[in-house]
Amino acid sequence: MFTDESNGEFLIARPNCIHEPPIASDGIGSNKTDHNKDIKDDSSPGDFFSAIDAVEKLGYEGKLSSVQIAQMKHRFFKLSGLLSKIRDNEFNLLQLSKKMSTQLDSLNESLSKADNYPEGYNTKADKLREQILNANNRLLQIEERNDELNYTIESLKDEKRMLQNEYNRMPKEEDAINLHKQLEKSVSEVKSEMNKRSGETRQLTQTMQDTKEMLEQITKLKNDAEEQCQNLVSESGEIESQLLQTMKETDKLQKQKDEVERLKTETSDEQLKLQDEMKTLESLRLQLELESVKLQNQSIKKQKKLYDLQSQHEAVNMHVCQLEQKNTEMTQQKTEADLKMNHLKQELLQLKDHINQQTRLREAFIRKARKADNILQALKESVKFTMKTCSEKHMNCLAMKQTGQDTQLLKKRTQLIHDIKKLKEMLLNQCQLTELEQIKLRQSLQQADQMNYDLANLRIELVELTRLVTIKSDEREQKSRDFLIAQSRYTRIQDDIKSKQLQINEYDKSLNSTQKKLKDFAHLYEAIKEERNNCLSSIQLSNQHIQELSEKLRISANEIDILKNNLVHKEELTNKQRKNIEKVIAAHDLLRNEFSKLSCTIKDNEEQKERMKQSIHRQNTIITQTTKQIENLKNAMGHVIKVRNSQAIELVERNEEFCVLQVKHFVFTWATRI
Q: Which of 168, 226, 250, 547 could cross-link 66 (Cys pair, CB 3.0–4.6 Å)?
C-alpha cells in the first residue's frame, strides 16, 4: 500500500493492488518537452532564412527570374504556415491525450477506492489528503497553463522575428527617397542631355546654313573664276596654263562640293534620327515621371502599412505584457500554494507523530511485515521503472551519439540562448525608451530569468517533498487502514463520491473557462496570423513591384547607355564632318588665296601690259618726236654748218685781220718803243 509520483503528479494509494499507469504522465511530459524541442529545432530561423537567401542568390546569379523567386517564396511561406498549423494541432492533440489520460487515471483511482476502501472512512487525514490533491491538481493546471503560455510566447517571438526580418527587408523611407532622388537626377540628366542635343542640333543647323552660304559663295567664285579664266585664256598662253591649274582646282572644289552635299544629306538623316531619338527620350521622360508618381503613391501606401504594422506590433506587445502580468500572478498563486503546502506538511507531520505514538506498541509486528512487503513491491516497481528509463535513456544516448545530435542540440541550445539575448538587445534598441526605462526593463528581464531558475529549483524541491509526502502518507494510510477498515468504509465511499463530484465540478468550471480563453486566444491568434499573411503578401507584392521597377530602370539605363553610345558615335561623325568641313574650308581658303593671288598676278600683268602699251605708245611718240627732232636737227645742223662755215670763213678772215692788226700793233709798239 503506497503511492507513486512522477513529475509533480500525485496518485492516491490503493490497498492490495499493483500500480501501473504513472508512467503515462512522464511519457506525456517527455512528449511535450520533445515536441517543444522539435518545434525549436525545426523552426530555427537559420534554416528558414538560409532557404530564402539561397533563392535570392539564385535570383542574383540570374538562374531564376523575379517571378519564379516570388512564386517560390509564396509557396515556401504557405508551406511554413501549414507546418506551423500542423504543429499547433499536434500540440493540441497531445494536450487532449494528456487530459484524457489524467481523467482515466482519476477514474481508475476512484474505482479502486470504491472497491477497496472501508466503509465510513472519514478522518482529518482524508480531508487533508483531499486538500493536497486539489492543490496538486491546481498546481498541475497552473504548470500546464504556464507551459502553454510559454509556447505561445515562443511562437509569438518567432513570428515577431519573422516580421522584424521582413520589415528589415522592406524598402524604408530613406531608400524610397533615395530612389526618388536618383530618378529625379536621371530625369534632370536626360533633360540636360536633351538640351545639349538640341543645342548641338542648332549648331549643326547653323553649320549647315554656313556651309550653304559658303557653297553659294564658292559657286559665285567659281562663276567669276570661269569668266576670268575665259578672259585669261583669250589673253595669253601663260595665263592658259595657270587657268588649267585653276580648272583643276575648281574640279577639286566641285568634288569637295559633292562631298559637302553628301555630308549635308548625312547630317539631315542624322538630324531626323536625332529628332526620333528626342521623341523617344521625351516618351521615356514621361514614363519616368509616371513611374515616379506611382512610386510616390506606393511609398505613401507602404508608409500607411508600416504605421498599421507598428500599431499591430504595439498591440502584440501589450498582449505580451498582459501575459507576463498573468504569469506573475500565477507565480504569486503558486507561492501561496507552496506556503499552504508547507503548512499542510507541518500538520501532516504532527498527525503522523500522534498516529505513531498510538499505534507503535499495538501493531509493530504487522507494520513491519506489511512495510517489508510494500517496500519489496516498491523496490521491484522502482527497479523496473528505473531499468526501463535507463534502457530508454541509454538507447536515446546511443542514437544521439550515432547521429551526432548531442553536440548539435548543445550547439542549438547555445545558439538559441545567444539569439534570445540578441533579440532582447534588439528589442531594447528598437523600443524608443529612456535610459531609466531600459535599465528597468533589463532588471525585469534578469528578474524573470532568475525567477525561472528559482521555479526550476522549486519544482525539483517540490518533487522531492512530494516523494517524502507520498512515503509518509503510505505509512500513515497503512496504519489508518489497518486500524479503521471495518468502521469507515461506507462513510469513506460517500465522502469520496462527494469530493469527486466537487472535483468534477471544479474541473468542468476550469475546463469551460480555459476553453473560453483558448477560443478567444485562438480568434486573436487567427486575426494576427491573417494580418501577418496580408502583410507578407503585401511585402511580396511590393518586392515584386520594386524588382519590376528595378528591371525597368535597368532597361531604361541600358537604353540610355545605348543612346549615349549612339550620341558619342554621332558626335564622332559630326566631329569628323566638322574636321572635313574645316579641311574643305581651309582648302577653300587656300584656293581663294591662290585665286586672289592669280587675280592679283593677272591684274599686275594687265597693268604691266597697259604700262607696256603706254610705254610703247610713249616710245613711239618719242620716236616720232625724235625723228622729227632729228630732221629738225639735221636741218638745223645744215643751217648751223652753213652758219659755221660762214662764221669760220668770217673767223678766218677776222683772224687774218687780227693777225694783221697784231702785226701792225707789234710794229706800232716796237716803233713806239724805239
A: 547
C-alpha dihedral over 556, 559, 565, 568, to 10 degrees?
Answer: -70
Within 8 A by CB and 6+ apart from 409, the residues are 37, 41, 400
Per-residue model confidence (pLDDT) at position 141:
83
Confirm if 167 and 310 have CB atoms less than 8 A apart: no
- What is d(CA 232, CA 242) in angstroms, rounded to the nearest whole number? 9
The radius of gyration of the chain's CA atoms, rounded to the nearest angstrom, is 63
The residues near 80 (Cβ < 8 Å, ≥ 6 apart) are: 48
In terms of C-beta density within 10 A (0-12 exposed, 13-18 middle, 19 or more buried), how is residue 12 classed? Answer: buried
The yes-or-no verdict on residue 217 having pLDDT over 50 is yes
| Residue at grid coordinates 547521429 | 403
Q: What are phi and psi of 164, to 5 degrees?
A: -65, -45
* pLDDT for position 325: 74
> What's the pLDDT tens digit per position in 587-634?
777 877 777 777 777 878 788 778 777 777 777 777 777 778 778 767
pLDDT in tens, 637-647: 777 677 777 77
Q: Are 252 and 587 in contact (CB under 8 A)?
A: yes
**Do residues 371 and 478 make contact, with C-beta atoms less than 8 angstroms apart?**
yes
Nearest to 542 by CA among 304, 381, 341, 351: 304
Distance of CA 634 to the CA centre of its chain: 126
CB-based burial label for 232 (10 Å; 0-12, 13-18, 19+)? buried
- Average pLDDT of every residue of the chain: 70
Q: What is the pTM of this model?
A: 0.21
Q: Are 137 and 503 in contact (CB under 8 A)?
A: yes
Domain boundaries, the chain: 23-184+296-556
Cβ neighbours of residue 415 closer than 8 Å, sequence gap 6 or more: 46
